[in-house]
Write a structure and sequence with these properties.
single chain, about 300 residues, Uridine Diphospho-n-acetylenolpyruvylglucosamine Reductase, domain 2, Uridine Diphospho-n-acetylenolpyruvylglucosamine Reductase, domain 1, 8 helices
Length: about 300
Amino acid sequence: MNKQKVTLANFVKILNKKYPEIQVKTNYTFKDLTTFKIGGKIKALIEITQIDILLKVLNLIKDYDIEYFILGKGSNLLVSDKPCNFLVLKIMLNSITVRGNKIICGAGVGLFKLNQIAIKNNLTGLEWSFGIPGSLGGAVKMNAGSFGGEMSFVTECVYYTDGNKIYKKTNKGLKFSYRKSFFSNNNFVILKVIISLKKGDGEQVKKLCLQNFKKRQETQPYNLPSAGSVFKRPKNEFAPVLIERCSLKGFKCGGAQISTKHCGFIVNINNQATFNQVFKIITKIKKTVSKKFDIILEEEIIILR
């Protein structure tokens, strides 16, 4: 079948006619849905609460060659202030089942919630992630990690789709590496993740979670909007150290600023920062670090222009 190229507005009309039960929302902005609190109007957003809804939408997308973006908790995104001309699919697959030492979760479950379930069921192995504001699907995709732990250590298997079928990959097939996975360079959508933990003491698990959360609050600008660590760790170096050695701590551009608490973060002061201001700071950091240390920093955050 030859793909038909249509505008986003016409695609929404086609979708409404074929699947009237699927609601398309037009009253959101990326500023509403990202931790950076930056981003323009979303012309069309569908909340994915059921897998069958996702499969219907993805199949129609293929027929009409519509650009789309998969959104989780929006915790590692920098998005343009301009209205977006692509369809946004917000993953809200939030089912949770506990079987022994395993937690079976929808991809939309937040890491805060996942930790609460682990504590309640006396399961240990996720404490390092307590306080990370992302979703489970996003965490698996980028192999999120901190305090010596990462998703590759606890992910038993992942169910995902290309819009036609549902597939399963076990840990080995997920090709985890530093801030990368099998999902890093494709458009597959993560549906469900099985997390394998160890039996522990719920009170001790909770204690370690709170200790890690306290460390985050003490060392990171946790009270200000940001997208987390902006850059990946370069080989044998630490991006925040390089940035500070370039005397860039506290550097500002409008409402955006390199955090004075942690140079790996760019923060949004008083919710006044714009995409361009943050992007200018990112560009300045990369140029300055490259010139001084001959090191090319690579963004960890996703940038949608």
